[in-house]
Design a protein that fits this description.
By secondary structure, this protein is of the alpha/beta class. The protein has 3 domains: 3-244, Aminohydrolase, N-terminal nucleophile (Ntn) domain (Glutamine Phosphoribosylpyrophosphate, subunit 1, domain 1), CATH 3.60.20; 260-449, Rossmann fold, CATH 3.40.50.10490; 453-593, Rossmann fold, CATH 3.40.50. The structure holds fructose -6-phosphate. Fructose -6-phosphate binds next to helix 9 and helix 16.
Length: 611
């Protein structure tokens, strides 16, 4: 999730690139850089954020170090994946002689063997990134034709990419290619061309854009653009006129970041799983086995949504790895004097890696000699830096305050961690683990299918949006998902919502159920269908309105509930990863129907840095 801007035209490139990057900051912002073509070679400034000052701010202050007269250049704003957020790891990357420059979004999967090969050929690498291999390949294959060098480079790399390159010997030329990462070419006035990862980067300059498809290349040269496939066969493309306003364009045409992020979940789950299953079909967390040796119990700690992810992690760890596990709210954990020692693994879960309560729990764990594993979405965050080991969720920047894709990717990491420990401890049959991993790989398609049925969820949100209060019920893993569903509804719709273990409802709470109090039943756990069904009947008997999200084979619920959103087939253990999606959407539509500020709900902040 990084941002790319390139420019080739007659105007000074640096201010145009900077302005474009500033429009893309929402895509990733831990480092940023600009490179310009000059007759002597490529000139570059790039930086990570330092001492609390954002990278983009530092870059803006350094822009006057670049030649003001240069009219061709590329820029990048980065959200670290391979390699920490440092000045050297920031893009653009240059070849050894400083004649070529490249910016890249995505992941070059085979970068390790490529890097070894290029090093042998004499290339000097300056960064830890996968992206740098691309610029060295470009220089390696260059024989006077930059587009041909790119074609040969593309034949060598696997993975996902949007990339733009340029070369000292070709003033006014940019070459670009895409596979599984967005890239557009904007056609400005008088032969000005922009290449960008997102439309907002170019919108102040032009509304005429060409959208590249996977497997396409673009070459901007001498005030014209041409397109081809990777083999060089020309492609005709029609220009599209963008009619959205700039603010909407930052959201990729979505009304709210939250909806965009909900829709990004299939991709985020793929990215988080990527590289974590080895050739033998086993989980590979990239953490040395000794780190886990002698662990006797696990404490999963987080706040809000992250805590809810920990609840699922606990169930899976106990069920599969047969490790005693507890889940704790971070703000309670440190004051409770938890029993911690060197045999305890403390798993801190935090999207931002900056939540004060979670960091305090980290310090408490460290003080007591426990091992600290951090699950976070932000490379370079405080929690990631202070951890003994880190597992990143590769959800990409989450902008909406209400967490969605960070949660589902946290759940995926919980599954991987539990499977890994279960296998390491010899507690899980290899076939069972293999079947679950295969299913995990198939989940993005199932979520995509759920996302195609948004209309039903919008309809189900109508009675909820009119209620003053709602209950969410479920048993086992469904209860943990119900807690997260209720939190989503509360924070963005401002409707009072409470999640109950379904069997607990009759111990007092049923007194609150009336025809005006919708009850959302979650029912995916096969062994508990009948029990949850009885609880639904209890609600119906009090004239309550029951809306359900249920497994497709739980047909009896169809007769009992007022409306059911049926889930695609999924095993009990992995059900939370799909079940939450309709609940996120119900909360989203309820908030929209009430006219709320969905992305920035009242009283809340994305990162809570106070205890
Ligand atoms: C709810 C939400 C919060 C966060 C919590 C912890 O949608 O986002 O409950 O989960 O503030 O934040 P992180 O995960 O950044 O530590």
């Amino acid at each position: 999730m990084c941002g790319i801007v390139g420019y080739a035209g007659r105007r000074p490139a640096a201010p145009l690139l900077l302005a474009g990057l500033q429009k893309l900051e929402y895509r990733g912002y831990d480092s940023a850089g600009i490179a310009l073509l000059t007759p002597e070679g490529v000139r570059v400034v790039k930086t990570a954020g330092h001492d609390g000052v954002m990278a983009m701010e530092i870059l803006a202050g350094q822009i006057d170090r670049l030649p003001a007269e240069a009219t061709t250049g590329i820029g990048h704003t980065r959200w670290a994946t391979h390699g920490r957020p440092t000045d050297n790891n920031a893009h653009p990357h240059l070849d050894t002689a400083g004649e070529f420059a490249v910016v890249h979004n995505g992941i070059i999967e085979n970068y390790l063997p490529l890097r070894a090969r290029l090093r042998e050929a004499g290339c000097v690498f300056q960064s830890e990134t996968d992206s740098e291999t691309v610029v060295h390949l470009l220089a390696h294959y260059y024989r006077g034709d930059l587009a041909e060098a790119l074609r040969r480079t593309l034949a060598d790399i696997s993975g996902s990419f949007a990339l733009v390159g340029m070369c000292r010997h070709h003033p006014g030329q940019l070459v670009a290619a895409r596979r599984n990462a967005p890239l557009i070419v904007g056609a400005g006035a008088e032969g000005d061309f922009f290449v960008a990862s997102d439309i907002p980067a170019v919108l102040t300059e032009t509304r005429e854009v060409y959208v590249l498809e996977d497997g396409e290349m673009a070459v901007v040269s001498d005030g014209a653009v041409s397109f081809s496939d990777f083999a060089g066969t020309a492609r005709a493309k029609t220009v599209m006129r963008v009619t959205w306003d700039a603010a909407a364009a930052e959201k990729g045409g979505y009304e709210h970041f939250m909806l965009k992020e909900i829709d990004e979940q299939p991709r985020a789950l793929q990215d988080t799983l990527y590289g974590r299953v080895n050739r033998s079909g086993l989980v590979d967390l990239g953490i040395r086995a000794e780190f886990f040796a002698g662990v006797e119990r696990v404490a999963l700690v987080g706040c809000g949504t992250a805590y809810h992810a920990g609840l699922i992690g606990r169930e899976l760890l106990e069920a599969w790895a047969q490790l005693p596990a507890e889940t704790a709210i971070a703000s309670e954990f440190r004051y409770r004097r938890p029993l911690l020692d060197e045999h305890t693994l403390v798993v801190l879960i935090s999207q931002s890696g900056e939540t004060a309560d979670t960091l305090a729990a980290l310090h408490e764990a460290r003080k007591n000699g426990a091992r600290v594993l951090v699950v976070t979405n932000v490379v370079g965050s405080t929690a990631a830096r202070e951890a003994d080991e880190v597992l990143f969720t590769w959800a990409g920047p989450e902008i909406a305050v209400a967490s969605t894709k960070a949660y589902t990717t946290q759940l995926e990491v919980m599954v991987l961690l539990a499977l890994y420990l279960a296998t390491a401890r010899g507690r899980l049959a290899a076939e069972y683990s293999a079947a679950l991993l295969a299913e995990l790989q198939a989940l993005p398609a199932k979520i995509t299918e759920i996302l195609s049925r948004k209309e039903q969820l919008r309809r189900m949100a109508v009675p909820i949006s009119r209620a003053g209060s709602a209950f969410f019920i479920g048993r086992g893993l469904d209860w943990a998902v119900a807690l997260e569903g209720a939190l989503k509804l509360k924070e963005i719709s401002y409707i009072h919502a409470e999640a109950y273990a379904a069997g607990e409802l009759k111990h007092g709470t049923l007194a609150l159920v009336t025809a005006d109090t919708p009850v959302l039943a979650v029912a995916t756990q096969r062994a508990l269908y009948d029990k949850t069904l009885s609880n639904v009947e209890e609600v119906k008997a009090r004239e309550g309105r029951v809306l359900a999200v249920a497994a497709s084979d739980n047909r009896e619920l169809g007769d009992a509930a007022d409306e059911v959103f049926w889930l695609p087939p999924v095993s009990d253990a992995l059900a939370p990863l799909v079940t939450i999606v309709p609940l996120q959407l119900i909360a989203y539509y309820a908030a929209v129907l009430r006219g709320n500020h969905v992305d920035k709900p009242r009283n809340l902040a994305k990162t809570v840095t106070t205890e």
